[in-house]
Amino acid sequence: MADLRLREHRPGDMGWVIHRQAALYCQEYGWNEEFEALLAEIAAAFLREFKPGRERCWIAERDGRTLGSVFLVRDTDEVAKLRMLYVEPSARGQGVGRALVAECLRFARAAGYLSVTLWTNDILTAARKIYVDEGFRLVSEEKHHSFGQDLVGQYWRLDF
């Protein structure tokens, strides 16, 4: 992990993140273009409404290769949202996701947020394990049909 670098976003990163996460989730879960549209909407809102000191995107890199990313965005003055966590298949199981989430939560605390929420789907088991290990608690679940699939969406919350 010593050679893992977490950096802030720069021009071109959003397109890459949208592309990679959409392509991976299509391949791994059969998700369609609706998911890509959601990713693009989240990324566009992040760039248009970016609040330095309150929001951030981290890109995980090793040897110049992008391994994953995560976003922290403002929901209210007291609540932030963790968004769009993903890790490249070649980097999974190496602590990249944990490092991204830990840095996201460290930043949220330092920015003065009182809690962090997130929305995910129950089939994303590796990410959910990270959230549980970091202290998030499941708030609610709901069945939905999105991204061309029948899914179970989950809302999670971590209070500091």
Salient structural properties:
160 residues, Aminopeptidase, 7-stranded mixed beta sheet, single chain, 4 helices, alpha+beta
User: CATH H level of the domain at 5-113: which superfamily?
Assistant: Gcn5-related N-acetyltransferase (GNAT)
Whole-number mean pLDDT: 97
Strand content: 35-45%
Spatial extent as radius of gyration? 15 Å
The CATH topology of the domain at 5-113 turns out to be: Aminopeptidase
Span between N and C termini? 26 Å
Q: What is the 3D shape?
A: globular
Give the strand order, joined by hyphens, for the main sheet.
1-2-3-4-5-7-6
- The CATH architecture category of the domain at 5-113 equals 3-Layer(aba) Sandwich
Helix content range = 25-40%
How many β strands by DSSP? 7
The assigned structural class equals alpha+beta
CATH class of the domain at 5-113: Alpha Beta
What's the SSE pattern?
EHHEEEHEHEE
Present the secondary structure layout:
Blueprint: E1 5-8, H1 13-29, H2 33-48, E2 56-62, E3 65-74, E4 79-87, H3 96-110, E5 115-121, H4 125-133, E6 137-146, E7 149-159
Parallel strand pairs: 4-5
Antiparallel strand pairs: 1-2, 2-3, 3-4, 5-7, 6-7
